[in-house]
Specification:
The chain is mainly α. It has one domain. It contains eight helices and no strands. The longest helix has 27 residues. InterPro entries: Fatty_acid_hydroxylase, Scs7. Keywords: Endoplasmic reticulum, Fatty acid biosynthesis, Fatty acid metabolism, Lipid biosynthesis, Lipid metabolism, Membrane, Metal-binding, Oxidoreductase, Transmembrane, Transmembrane helix, Zinc. Its cofactor is Zn(2+).
Length: 195
């Protein structure tokens, strides 16, 4: 029993260390892309309704993901002290680091969400929702990486990236990375003072 108690903290420490590696960072994308693609393919195969219904479900999944992104960033990554908060604080200290969730966690959460959805809606729609939420997560991750790794020339891309850079200086503002929709709706969008 004592060995099991010692294993818990050691395993958690190992997972936290692994989560800050480049390999973990890119494995997370690979796993999530593969699972999301499989869910979308299964959803399309099982779907017997209209294409408009399938397309609407995929759009709904992307909107749901945008809220999940906002919710996690605002209330978990900037919430009470936890391993998620510590990892996100490390990202604020070093935006070019590879701090991420353990590579298997987003896929496990995505599978769990899809199972819950399948209890509420037809399986085809559950798979389409899960797959589009997964691709929303991938878009978020790649967007976030690109914002910190690229100096944009196009004014609209500079403005998009600047919104997130503001968050690194004002951590209670601009929680959305892929979209500012929920910052507008929930009043956390940074509004610069007029000169």
């Amino acid at each position: 029993m004592a060995a099991l108690r010692r294993l818990g903290p050691n395993l958690l420490d190992a997972i936290i260390r692994m989560s800050a590696t480049r390999t973990n960072y890119w494995l997370e994308f690979a796993f999530t892309i593969a699972l999301s693609g499989a869910l979308l393919a299964a959803g399309m195969r099982l779907h017997h309704g209209s294409w408009a219904g399938a397309f609407g479900t995929v759009l709904a999944g992307l909107v749901v993901f945008s809220f999940i992104e906002y919710l996690f960033h605002r209330w978990i990554f900037h919430g009470p002290d936890s391993m998620y908060r510590r990892g996100h604080d490390a990202h604020h200290r070093d935006p070019h680091g590879y701090d991420a969730l353990p590579f298997f966690l987003p896929s496990a959460i995505l599978l769990g969400l899809t199972v819950v959805f399948s209890m509420l809606v037809p399986t085809s729609h559950a798979c389409l929702l899960g797959g589009s939420i997964g691709f929303g997560y991938v878009a978020y991750g790649l967007s976030h990486f690109t914002i910190h790794a690229t100096r944009f020339r196009q004014p609209w891309m500079r403005q998009w990236a600047a919104r997130h850079h503001v968050h690194h200086h004002l951590p209670d503002r601009n929680f959305g990375v892929t979209t500012s929709l929920w910052d507008h709706v929930l009043g956390t969008r940074h509004r610069p003072r007029r000169r």
